[in-house]
Amino acid sequence: MVTTRINLWSGPRNISTALMYSFAQRPDTLVFDEPLYAHYLLTTGIEHPGKSDILATMQNSGQRVINEIILGDFDQSVLFFKQMTHHLVHISLDFLQQTRHLILIRNPQKVLFSYGKVIEQPTLLDIGIKQSFDLVQHLHQKNIPYTIVDSDRILKNPQKTLSLICQQMGIPFDDNMLRWEKGAIAQDGIWAKYWYANVHQSTGFEPYIDKEITLAPHLQAIYEQAKPYYDSLQEKAI
Length: 238
Fold this sequence. Notes:
Number of helices: 11
Strand order of the largest sheet: 2-3-1-4-5
CATH topology: Rossmann fold
CATH class: Alpha Beta
Mean pLDDT: 95
Radius of gyration: 17 Å
Largest sheet: 5 strands, parallel
Number of strands: 5
Structural class: alpha/beta
Order of helices and strands: EHEHHHEEHHEHHHHH
Shape: globular
Strand content: 5-15%
């Protein structure tokens, strides 16, 4: 059986969890929630909500995660890995040539507005947009195919955009991807209680709403740093 391995690369406070829930509705797909999270926490020493539980319950070795999970043998024909771009630290990137890549971006102004409610003093590196830019540069240099999509496009027209994403990933679109039952799924990371409240109350992608956002001065400063990276990626998005 040929296995399609899809890495969804995102920053935090995007719709990556909703997209994971969407792919989880496919009968041919097995989803994984941020398999490199413990590796990231261990190698960087950064503090995050639930850190001790994450380190205690997940594989801490990034290379073992790659060998046993991302490139491991599973029965399903599609494997979907919800990943954070900032988790790609202190690790070989050779495995990227063996998987497909979907780069999910979101206006960093919206990311910071949401992220700042949980992490009071985020940095540019916390929100992942620079790492997404660096990842795209790496994939381009290595001639590894990738697809960039803005979360707003998914929210504005889920069926059309998901169909296009599936086409880009080499798999058929499944209508089941448009809806799910309210509540958690078994594949949720142990950190879900800190971050997934909105998704657990949803039954599909939330309708797009254009909100006016005002950032606190320290968040605005990070936004100014992040915007050029976002703009560059947005130009290449489908």
